[in-house]
Amino acid sequence: MRIVMERLDRSYRLDPKRWQRVAKKILGVSEETTTGVHRLGQMAASGELLFPAVNVNDSVTKSKFDNLYGCRESLPDGIKRATDVMVAGKVVVVCGYGDVGKGSAQSMRAFGARVIVTEIDPICALQAAMEGYEVRRLEDVVEKGDIFVTATGCCDVIRGEHMERMKDEAIVCNIGHFDSEIEVSYLQNTRGIKRENIKPQVDKWTLKSGRSIILLAEGRLVNLGCATGHPSFVMSNSFTNQCLAQIELAKGKLALGVHTLPKRLDEEVARLHLDRLGAGLTKLSKKQAAYLGIPAGGPFKPDYYRY
């Protein structure tokens, strides 16, 4: 990444107008990460977006599948490959209860862990509570956790003061965002803290408290750093959305701004994956479709429907 950034910086200094010329030839972009879509929205609001963008992340067949079911399988895969830890009976603290947090919490509970959720959003917090999870503030449970998982998309979620209070050899990892969710800089820049590399992507940090933590993937995405990411089937959902988005952009009819794929395409992505799972789809009769006031072949839900 440093090499790429250095080359981009050198290119810009040699020709400040180059990327403006490149942008004029771009029909658009498609983006499937929560953070990337957030940045595109910011650029559109500030007038910095130079071409149409398709928000693939908020397609139902991406966010409700890749984020939830993908993380449900790839989080324990990363933790197990890195540590071989027995999850059953442990206390796992999941920071964030969006789709990524939901999948993460489900997987840890399925392994027999006692899961505690932290949240800033009252709706997500209520969902977690009604699913049977204990919902607490991180500062109130930091001494209890054996494994900590960040899944928020925010920065400074687990900070130095939290790590200093953790029990000895607590495992700390991130599945939500860049390495800014965990304050890795505290570990790197604080005098007296020592790092011992156990194996690639697994580091033991001895803290000022005298206790140590096990940091996975240097605070970056644990399912990618310590495993191979999501299973290919669930990624097929996401990449099918990407292909459909690129087809829409290639038509050249989208206005400047951030767009989402229409519901009919979202449903088509799901339909294409049903046969592989041996699923049979019920069909509406003309009478039933008329009763519901929808086309017999879909779309079956309005755009505002929350799955």
CATH first level of the largest domain: Alpha Beta
H/E topology pattern: HHEHEHEHEHEHEHEHEEEHHEHH
Mean pLDDT: 95
The named CATH superfamily of the largest domain:
NAD(P)-binding Rossmann-like Domain
**Rounded to an integer, what's the Rg over CA atoms?**
22 Å
CATH architecture field of the largest domain: 3-Layer(aba) Sandwich
The number of domains is 2
Q: In summary, what is this structure?
A:
The chain has 13 helices and 11 strands.
What does this structure look like?
With 307 residues, this protein is of the alpha/beta class. The protein is built from 13 helices and eleven strands. Strands 5-4-3-6-7-10-9-8 form an eight-stranded mixed β-sheet, with helices on one face. A three-stranded parallel β-sheet has the order 1-2-11, sandwiched between helices. Strand 9 (202-206) and strand 10 (212-216) form a beta hairpin. The two termini are 37 Å apart.
